[in-house]
Structure formats: structure tokens, C-alpha cells
Specification:
- With about 400 residues, the chain is of the alpha/beta class.
- It has 15 helices and nine strands.
- Strand 7 and strand 8 form a beta hairpin.
- Helix 7 runs antiparallel to helix 8, helix 11 packs antiparallel against helix 13 and helix 14 crosses helix 15.
- The structure holds fe (ii) ion.
- The site of fe (ii) ion has 5 residues, from helix 7.
Length: about 400
Amino acid sequence: MEAGSALGPTPLTGFKDFYQYASTTRVIAGRDLLSSTGFEFQKEGARRVFVVTDEVIRATGLVDRIEAGVTDGGLEVVGVYDRVPQDSSTHVCDESAAAAKEAGADSFLAVGGGSVMDTAKVADAVFTHGGTAREQEGFFLMPRDDDGMGRPHDIAPLACIPTTSGTGSEISMAAVIKDPEEKVKIEIADFPLFPRLAILDPETTRTLPPKVAAATGMDAVTHAIEGYVSTDWSPHQDARSLHALRMIRGNLERAVERGEEDEEARGNMLIAANLAMTIALGSAHAMSHPAGARFGVPHGVANAIHLPHVIRHNAAGSDEIADRYRDIGEVFDIAEPDIGDALATHITELVDRLGLPTRLSQVGVPEDGIPALVEGAMGDGTTLLNPREMSEEDYAELYRAAL
Ligand SMILES: [Fe+2]
């Protein structure tokens, strides 16, 4: 059997036949960085900046301070779109792209969580290339030189200032957006979507509510763990995933419990979430995307619920998969022979200590919703990257276990 072919499982060890790794976002991290937003963004070619954010963040005064930082650098804020909802949609992307055009912008600045940053990415693509957000769907399908074979065309400069520690969207080339008509989440990924600049400053998460810090932190945990066991693993990402987990181990609970008074934990969680990010994910994400699209379960909460069940299922699939989880167990001092069960139990206890729900029935998912969720999970792109091949029956069983 050929390694990595559709005929057999992809090896999770050894020298890989092929992988590629790219991360073209300039990351700056530290204290008191917001006042130099303009100074830094100017280096990426921005002059007339269009800000994308949400009403909750705007009400904290954070956007005003960042706007002052933009103008301090000699740039102009030509418009602010603050109507991004918690779970953004293709309509919102189209609307903000049109508003940026109308304002005569030449660049985008996203201030917010994953929904805001993903909206800004897709809006920027629509702003630059025309069309609609729905038409951007796909992997590596953005316009390129030489009839699509050459270099992808840049989109307008995008800077991201995350206000949660979890999604990692500020350093990824992917966006996930809801199509409200079809009730699905569409995925868009290509190299030009890497933001040019990401600014990580713990000031942006100072007033983050503990529940949101916990849920988004669990999204980062899920990225690190799923990324490490994905069939699309790479040594480059392995290094990032394991170090992200070490940083999460020491900082997630601290950041949730002590919030405002613990700048160090908040700063480290911003960096951990950034390190954890990968688009090589697996079945926890495949299960969480339809739970969000159909029942509005927040992404981090859905991952927190699904992850332990996926770990148990995957680790029972082969010794090779279990060995990958054993590496993760080492980070948390877990060395039990049944690594799947031990690691899953550890995660559930963590989720419980963080004050998050551990069951789908606690977040409004009814038992008769399972068939639609199974269909969504089977159709999700991340299912193909899960280390254990998944069937409809497998997903139905995992959803029932999580209910
Ligand atoms: Fe995620």
C-alpha cells in the first residue's frame, strides 16, 4: 500500500512524502502596542484604513484607542463597520466590503474575535476582486497569474488585532463564514488571506468575560491537539502545537480566573492561541461547525464538548494514533496505558473547571437534531484530515455520547 494514498491510513510518523508550511503574517507581541498601530500598519502599505469590529468591542472604548493609534502614525480611518454578529454571515461580508468601497479605503483593520477577523478577510477579498462572499468559497481558488497557475494576487493590506485568545484567525489563511440561506458554514482558504500584520497586546483581552476567555481558550486547545494528530501534520506545526499546549497549561486557567489582574497570563494566552492555529484539523471541528450553523452553539463551547469524545474514538483507532496522543499526554503529565481515555478525562475535567458546559443538551441541541449534525460533519472538509476515517455511524455515536 502506498504511503498516504487513499487506500491506506496516512502515516503519523517518519519522513513525510509531502507537506508544505507557510506563515507569512508579521506578528508583533508585547505591551503598549496599540498606540503604534498606524506606525506598524503603514509599513504594510496602508494609508486609508477601514475598521471592522463589533458593537460590544466598540462599546469598551478599545476601538477609539486603536483609531487614535492609527491616526498617530499619520494614517486616516475612513470608516468603521461595527455590525459583525457573533456568528458572521456572507451578507455581513458583502455589506462591509461595500461600505469600505464607498469610504474610499485602501486597507482593512480587524479588531475583534474570530468572527470579526474572518469577516474582514472575506470582505477584503470581495473588496479587491469583486463578486460576492458566497463566490469566494473554496481552497486555493483565488485569482492567480498565468491562468490560475502562477502567483496568487494580493488583496488589500489587512491587519488583525485579536480581542480573544483562541481562534488564531489573525495568523491563518482561512475564514469560516455562515451562509444563512443554506444553513452551512463555508470555508475559504488561500495564501493571500494571511493577514499582513497581527498585533498581540494583552490590553485587548483585559475586560474579556471569563466565559468567553474559557470558550475561546478551549478552541486554542482543540487547534493544538487536532493539529498534532491530523493526517495533514507536519514537523513545523508539531513544534508549534506542543509549545502552544505548554503555554496553555500554565496560563489558560489563570487567565480565566484572574482576568483583568493577570496581564502575563492574558498575554501568554494570546501567543499560545496564535501558535496553536492550523487549518489541518479533524473531527472535533467537523462536529462543531454544524453545531454552530444549525443550533448556534459558540465555536469554542462546541469544541470543548466534542474534543474528549473525538480523542477517545481516534486513540482507539490504531497504536500509531494513540502514540501521537501520548506525546500530548506528556505535556500534561499523563502516561496511562489507555491514553485516549486518560487524556479525554483530563480535558473534560479542565472544561468543567473552566465553568463551561460538557454536554450538547446543555446548549440547546435536541436528540432529533443529530441526523442533520451528522450530515454536516460528514460534509465538512476537516473530516478528511482526521487521523481515523469517519463514517456516519461513527459521528452519530459521538454526537449521542456528547448529548
Ligand atoms: Fe477552531
